[in-house]
Amino acid sequence: MIGAGIAGASVAYFLALAGATVTVLDAGLHAASTVSAALLNPVRGQSGAVDAGAVEGMTLTWELVQALTDAGYAVPHGKTGVLRPVPDARTRARFEKRLPAELAHTWLTPSESPVPLSSGWDAVLHLPEGGWVDGAAFTQALLAASGAWVVHGRARSWDATSVELEDSTRLEAGAVVWCGGSVGASWAGHPATHRAGTMLLLSRPVSPLPISFGAYLSPAASGGVLGATFEQPSPIWNAGPLPLGSLDWLLKKGEALADMSGVQVTGRWSGSRLSGLRVGQTPQGWWQLTGLGSKGFLLGPLRARELAGQVAG
C-alpha cells in the first residue's frame, strides 16, 4: 500500500480481513485524512447531489466505527444526525429531486430545528443517520486493526509488484496499491485537480450536531470546528498560507449558519483534497484508489472494500 490516509488505511483493513499480509508506505506529510471532524453527510454541496453508494457508504463507515470501538480503539464520533438548512424554495426543490427513497430524511421549518439557526433560512433538511467522525482517529484505528507493517518513507517509483523508496530501498509484494492523495499525486506527476480546504478549531462546539450549507459547523473530539473547501481548484498541490480574505469568508459562512458569539478560534487545520475518483487496476498492473475529494469518509471505505475484493481475488 502506498499512502496511509483514509483510502490506504481502508484498503489495508479489508485486505487484512481477506487474509493478506499488508505493508503500508507512509510519507506522513500533509495528510488530508487527519481532519478533526469529517462529516458523514450523503447530501453534497449546494446542489443536494447524492452520489451512487452514498447511503451504503455511510452505513458501512458507521459499522466500521462501531467495530473498531468494540475492539478497543478510541474513535471519537457523533452519530447525531446532520442539519442542512436551505436558503429558498428553489434550493429545497433541487434537493428534493435528488433525495433517494432509501435515505432517511425529514424537512423542518427553521422554528422546528433541534438547534437554533441564524435567520434567513427557508427550510432545514434533517438527516438523522448522518454525523461526524474524527478523521485521524478513524484512519489510525483502521490501520492498526489491519495489522499492517508501516514503513515511513516516500515512494520514488513502483510497478505491479515492487516499490522503490527515495533511499533506494526496494519493497517486493504480490500486488501494489497506490492510494496517494493530493500530495502524492503531485509528487508522482499525475494530472489531477486539487482543492484546498481549511478548518478553524473552535473553543467549543457551536451546535451539538453538524450544520452544513456552504461551510459546516460540527462538534469535534475537543471543542468544535468550522470548515469548508472553497479555494479555486488548482492543477498542483499547494500548501500556502490561508489568505485573510478566505478567513473572513469562512467566519461569515459560520455566522450565517448559527450564532458564533463567544466562540474563540483556537487553531487551524488545512489540507488539500484530490478530486476525480480513480479506482481499479491500471494498464501498468498496479492498483489504485484515489480522488475521493471531500467524500473520503463517506465513500472511501466502501470503494476500498470493493477494491480489496478485486486485489485479493
List keywords for this structure.
7 helices; 28% helix; D-Amino Acid Oxidase, Chain A, domain 2; alpha+beta; 313 residues; 3-stranded antiparallel beta sheet
Explain this structure to me?
The protein is 28% helix and 28% strand. It is an alpha+beta fold and 313 residues long. It has a single domain, classed as D-Amino Acid Oxidase, Chain A, domain 2 (2-Layer Sandwich), CATH 3.30.9.10. The longest helix is centred in the N-terminal third of the chain and has 17 residues. The model has no long low-confidence stretch (mean pLDDT 94).
- The top level CATH class name: Alpha Beta
Which structural class is indicated by helix and strand composition? alpha+beta
Number of helices: 7
Average pLDDT over all residues: 94
Give the helices and strands as they follow along the chain: HEEHEEHEEEHEEEEEHEEEEHEEH
User: Largest sheet, if any?
Assistant: 7 strands, mixed
The CATH architecture name reads 2-Layer Sandwich
Q: Got a strand count?
A: 18
The CATH topology label is: D-Amino Acid Oxidase, Chain A, domain 2
Strand content: 25-35%
